[in-house]
Design a protein that fits this description.
InterPro entries: UPF0153_domain. This is YkgJ family cysteine cluster protein. This protein has about 140 residues and is an alpha+beta fold. It has five helices and five strands; from the N terminus they run H-H-H-H-E-E-H-E-E-E.
Length: about 140
Amino acid sequence: MLEIPGKACGACTFCCQVLEIEELNKKAGALCGHCSLSGGCTVYATRPDVCRDYYCDWKEDRGLSAQFRPDRIGTLLMEDPDSDEYHAVCDPEKPFSWRNPLIFRHLVGLAKDGRTVVAKAGLRAWRIFADGRSQETA
């Protein structure tokens, strides 16, 4: 992946907190034990493939402004690697961060484009529809 100027992770470690990483026995919402609070991974060179293969949509999408940086909005925007879904992943302690008007407009826009959009927080999930409705899924 080519770096986009102004899109460095810096001190953002949101993915290291909100994502579940089975290979590291890390639960969603718990900060990874290998995460440096100043930013970065202490086992970066030997991190599991799931971490190597992960890309934050904010870093990849030139259309997402600095306001969308995950640690600023409390929501990680990403393509789901196991499906065609687009996910908005929130800290389980703040499960409705995806309802921020800035994020919600983005998610509804993707749903209008025909994408399946899902907001997640821990074990909870909501489907976002093109008409602006959302529905918690089982």
